[in-house]
Amino acid sequence: MKTILILTSNDAPQFKVEPIQELHAVMAEAGYDVVYPDSKCDALKLIEQNPRVAAVLFDWDDFGLALCSEISNLNEKLPLFGFANQNTVLDVSLTELRLNLNFFEYHLDQSEDIFVTIDQGIRAYVDDIVPPFTKALFKYVESNKYTFCTPGHLGGSAFLKSPVGSVFYDFYGPNVFKADVSVSMPELGSLLDHSGPHREAEEYIAKVFNATNSYIVTNGTSTANKIVGMFAAPAGSTIMVDRNCHKSLTHLMMMSNVTPIYFRPTRNAYGILGGIPKSEFTREVIEEKIAETPNATWPTYAVVTNSTYDGLLYNTEWIKKTLDVKHMHFDSAWVPYTNFHPMYQGKYGMSGETVPGKVVYETQSTHKLLAAFSQASMIHIKGQVDHETFNESFMMHTSTSPQYGIVASTEVAAAMMKGNAGRRLIENSVERALNFRKEIKKLRTETKGWFFDVWQPDTIDGPDCWPLKPTDGWHGFKNIDADHMYLDPIKVTVLTPGMSKQGTLEDTGIPASIVSKYLDDHGIVVEKTGPYNLLFLFSIGIDKSKSLKLLRTLTEFKRGYDLNLKVKVMLPSLYNEHPSFYEDMRIQDLAQGIHKLMRKFNLPEMMYHAFEVLPQQEMTPHQAFQRVLKDQTEEVYVEELVGQVNANMILPYPPGVPLVLPGEVITEDSVAVLDFLLMLIEVGKHYPGFDTDIHGAYKQDDGRYKVKVIKR
Ligand SMILES: *Cc1c(COP(=O)(O)O)cnc(C)c1O
């Protein structure tokens, strides 16, 4: 925080120039960089693009309130120092602006005094933006205390006693180790007791995220989900789980002795997870599910993935009002930013007021789309719970030695999102995503022959979450409910050719897995690859250069594809793994070969049906897991799965959601599930390197897959 901007007019009279020059010298002496923007516009750009700007000095007579208002819009806390001619009326009390503004007059020989005030202002600013736990941690590190406690590396010094340890130490630098401190520092409080600065951090986060209470979780939303589920669903109760859930919730069901019933989402033609229809939240449908499930009673706890993996957000206001379940949990691992832009209003767990008689939980992977260390996660609660009991569940899943670096980064992520500076970050992400979407559409009209498409309404305007309307065709869903689901513009799904909106496979096509491998070879990692779609996330770290690189690489893929280059050239990594198979193959042959297989199996239909029916629950995941622990399992080939009780969760990736859960049986009614699995295996057999990763199924030497089932 060592940059100071000075904004004066170009033709400033000498009585203004001289004092500023004098002040400049003092500031430079103290180690500040002084920058002179050309204009107001230039100054605003500098502030926006350089968060290290620590203060702005400007001529009040020329720039005045108009400048202040625009700076406040970017960062209402930035210290501003207006220099005015003595005669100016300094009346800003009339405005509503939130400002950090001080005044000086143009005087010679006072620069030392003026600088002291400016320097104090900058220090106060830095102190103000650093949140409480982080501040306490910095202070602790600065105090350089000599400890005899854990961690054993003692501020890094243990590493320095070993050659490899020193290499490791040098890679990270000293502060990582100094800030990795033991839980026995009373001045930092405790995460497990929620005391001291840890408590302040959680209170700060709750305020920023509009929650009644928030908890910092240092081992991911995988853990946050289990903490909430274990608290909200006692043994013997029934829980209602989104079938498109993260595997941490399957693990919850294996750990807790509960009976699950499922929300059944739909899928569209593109294989995009469509979210849960409105009817699934109604009393009638839930009662039907209870009647079909042995030992099920009215659920005490329900969990919904919001947003879905493809960026669909629900009308959470409607769900909160309609779903008659006391503990309502939104797994929002992918959307920790919804509280910071008005377009998400009414579409996330902590939005709006407390619902009488209900408790709403929202779990978020702070590390996934905000800036925080891996595993940083938050639980937000709206409503009243017994915090002592909740904390038992929290501690059950939390190490007694949490990483303070993760705690601090979770808190800093919240601090970054506060106020106008945070809103701007989200606005910029949205803007970048919108520009990228527009570029793809533009290239599509300008390019000869085929080009990629993007999954979005036919006309998009402004930053908004786009509703999936029953009357619209673009989304490809059958029977979608009105006012129920919305597409988050930050989640960009790019479509490859080959599949129509109605879900039929065209004569030719380019399966997305090929494009994904190409991008990977060019240093671009795709978030998720579907059959004919690729998902990209425009998180706050994405800048213009990254977005341009993605566009350029997609264009280069098209060029190479149209020239029908060899696989060897287009996909070198794939070639290197299977050189003899791909030696002479060309890219179009590979694409059409896989596409033909998809057509042969009629992939869209198959996928739709595989997720339309659920296998039958013969025992709960908990009971099945107990059998596994007692070794009451055997292995069978996947083809022989019908009628067997599955022991593990079977989860093909993509799409990355469980297809069969422990304790479930694929029956003749649900044989589509098996057909889908067999098709995934078949594609991998024909084209090495294109195997679907199937969690819970084990590839044998003969290329067939086995799964674990419960012994009869
Ligand atoms: C990633 C994810 C999780 C788990 O979060 P981690 O922070 O990786 O532990 C939970 N739920 C959903 C929906 C996810 O996508």
Automatic annotation (TrEMBL):
Any one GO cellular component localisation term in the record: cytosol
Transmembrane segments: none
Reactions that this protein is recorded to catalyse: L-lysine + H(+) = cadaverine + CO2
UniProt keyword annotations, A-Z: Decarboxylase, Lyase, Pyridoxal phosphate
EC top class named in words: lyase
Source organism, top-level taxon: Bacteria
A single GO BP: L-arginine catabolic process
EC number, UniProt record: 4.1.1.18
Cross-referenced Pfam families: OKR_DC_1, OKR_DC_1_C, OKR_DC_1_N
Residue numbers bearing the N6-(pyridoxal phosphate)lysine modification: 368
Gene3D superfamilies per record: 3.40.50.2300, Aspartate Aminotransferase, domain 1, Orn/Lys/Arg decarboxylase, C-terminal domain, Type I PLP-dependent aspartate aminotransferase-like (Major domain)
GO molecular function, one term: arginine decarboxylase activity
Domain Orn/Lys/Arg decarboxylases family 1 pyridoxal-P attachment site, first and last residues per copy: 363-377
Family stated for the protein in its record: Belongs to the Orn/Lys/Arg decarboxylase class-I family.
Protein name: lysine decarboxylase
Taxonomic source organism: Paludibacterium purpuratum
